# Entry
Amino acid sequence: MEKTIIRLMDNFFNDKSNMIVRAKSLIELTETISKEKNKLKYLNEFFIKVDNMYSKLQGEESFCFLKEKAINNYFYSILSICGYYAPDICLEQMNRVANIIVNNFYKDDIPNIISQEKIEEILSYLDNKYEFLEKFNPFIYSIIEYKSKNYDSLLGIRRFPDKGEFEYNIFLFDVKDNKSPVYIFFHELGHYIHSNITNGKLYIPEDIILKLKDNGINIENMEEYQKNDFFADILAIGLMYGSPYEKEDPFFKTKEKNKNLFKDIVNKLLVLRK
# Structure
C-alpha cells in the first residue's frame, strides 16, 4: 500500500501541466490514505511536498503565474486550507476539492483568456491614475487555461494576523459564455479593493449604501455574498467608465448617471494622482 501512496503522490506532483489528471490522482490518493491506520504520517509527507512546491513559486520574481506554475499556485491555495483539519476531515476536504476540479473544469478548443500583457497594460493604466496599487497589500495573479462551470475567476485571501497583512491571489480562468475576460479581471480588482479598504472585513461603508439608495439602488435586502459581488461590479464599472476599457463593460443598460455615480465612488475611495 505504501508504494501505491508514493506513486500517487509522485503522479500528483510530477504531472504538472494537466490539472484534471492531477485532481484524479489526488482523489485516488485520498481514498487510499483513508484506508491506512497512520493517516497522519502520509498527510505530513504530502504537505511537506505541497510546501516545497509553494516555496519554488515564492522564489519567483514575477507577480504573474502561467501554465503549470498557475496550476501549482491554485492547488496550493485550496490544499493549504485542508491542511488545517484533523486527518479524516483533511482527507474528506482534499477529496471534495479534487472532485470539484474533475467535475467542473474542462479545456475548450476556443479559449477566451486574458493575457499577461493585457493585465500589465491595465495595471499600468490604473497605476498612472490612482495610488492604491502601491498602498494596498500586493496581489499575485494566476492565469489558468481551463474553463470552470461555476465561475470565471476567484479571489483568494489569506490573512496573517501577527503581521496585520493579507496575501491576495487572483485566479483568472478561461472565460465562458463570450464574456469579456477584461471585465472579469476588473471585477476581481473590485473584490480586491473592497477587501483592502475594509481591512478584510468586507462591509460596505454606510455612506456608500446611503448614496446608492438616494439614487434608487437599494442593496440592504441582499444576501451578504450578493452585496459583495454587486459592490465589486460597482467598483469595476467605476474603474472602467471613461477609461480605454469602457467598451468591455457588459452592463451597457446601466444608466449613465449611475455609471457617473460609480465613478465618483471609486474616485473617493481611491487616491487620484495629481
Remarks:
- The two ends are 65 Å apart (CA to CA).
- The longest strand covers residues 139-148.
- The CA atoms of residues 161 and 200 lie 11 Å apart.
- The mean pLDDT is 93.
